[in-house]
Amino acid sequence: MTKQTATIGSSTYQRIKHDIIFGVLEPGSKLKLEALKERYSTSNSTLRETLNRLTSDGFVEAPEQRGFRVTPVSREDLIEITELRVLLECHALEQSIENGDTDWEGNLVAAHHKLHLMEQKLLAGDNSDVELWKRYDWEFHQALIAACNSKNLLALHSTIFDKYLRYQMLVLTYRGDVAVAEHRAMFDAALARDTQKARDILEAHIRNGLSHTLEAM
Q: Element (H or E) spanning 70, and its range?
């Protein structure tokens, strides 16, 4: 595969995955090649490769080789995804706090600052840029675990986080001051190198998000 072809394939993958996560392509909907080819301006071969990759990652299904469809959602699936996120992210956080240097601290400070400013806009009633809010939320959680020193762990966490995010976007709600306080407490505990406290707050944060989403569903 040439570098240009690989770049096109990656771009198509990111665009379709984005549209699945943010609900543009609805859960359970059929993914017809001709419609996708026109929508994403790409070839059949790139689409098939992309859809197969998304199937491997769990965002798309190919039931008995009868075409492709967006993976459906369910309460049971969300609970399983949440348990995996707790397992992966809490472990990565422990390792990151242990290994983190001053660069890690600086990146974490910057990530929390951006998220906190966005949260203040949300608390003020400005919901005009939901995607940016979720991007800053992702960047903060990523900054917390970035020093875990495991590319495989970070890659697995990224996929699970995106699956968790898809459910949040389907029933988009905001937990307000509670979520803001949890983020601040995680941030403070991580900088203080209080591993157990940071882990406990993170687990509670994820599980509170689960309860909130299940109620909204």
A: strand 68-70
Helix (H/G/I), strand (E/B), else coil: 22 = coil
Mean pLDDT estimate for the chain: 92
Burial grade of 72 (CB within 10 A; 0-12, 13-18, 19 or more): exposed
User: Which residue intervals of the chain are DSSP H helices?
Assistant: 3-21, 33-40, 44-57, 75-99, 102-123, 130-145, 151-170, 177-191, 195-216
What's the pLDDT band for 4 if we cut at 50, 70, 90?
very low
CA 99, CA 121: separation in Å to the nearest integer?
33
Q: How many CB atoms lie within 10 A of CB 122?
A: 18
CB atoms within 10 A of CB 38: 10
For 96-113, what is each residue's pLDDT tens digit?
999 999 999 999 999 999
